[in-house]
Amino acid sequence: MSQYLFDPALESFPRDVALQRWSAADGDRDEYFMRMALAEATVAAEEGEIPIGAVLTCRDRVLARDHNRREQLRDPIAHAETLVLRRAAIFYPSWRVEEATLYVTLEPCLMCCGAILQSRVDRLVFGARDPKGGAAVSLYETLSDQRFNWRAEICEGVLQKECSAALVEFFRARRLRKSKA
What we know:
Layout: H1 29-46, E1 53-58, E2 61-67, H2 70-73, H3 80-91, E3 100-106, H4 110-119, E4 123-128, E5 153-156, H5 160-180
Parallel strand pairs: 3-4, 4-5
Antiparallel strand pairs: 1-2, 1-3
Helix pairs in contact: 1-5
């Protein structure tokens, strides 16, 4: 289930959701949150969705976490990234989620990079590159393009092997099911 941040200073955050927060005792910050994104990707695979997970954080606290739901919602824009940005905007005091970091298991597509720019996310951390659709560094460098009025810092390759393995295994199993049918 998706989880949100509760901060007493922000009255709009739900009080009944457990706070998830990183501390130095949890080890590397980026790996800690990327593991959460990988957990979301696992749920996506179990639901028959492409295994991509995302976690949006601010000040080391989880604002929202989710996974791809395009098949489930029958919605072409229900990517993990757009879902967490939408959820955070519901509870965040503004549509601008400045000071936020978005963790995603796969490099975002052009649509998701646009949503990242429009949401004013400060930092993107992703695991695996997407050579066929990635718009952060692979096909385009959307988030660092000087022509836009907002840019996001990019950190790539966090838990890259695990993120890539989830996708490779998902598509291998899907091809195997199709060949048996």
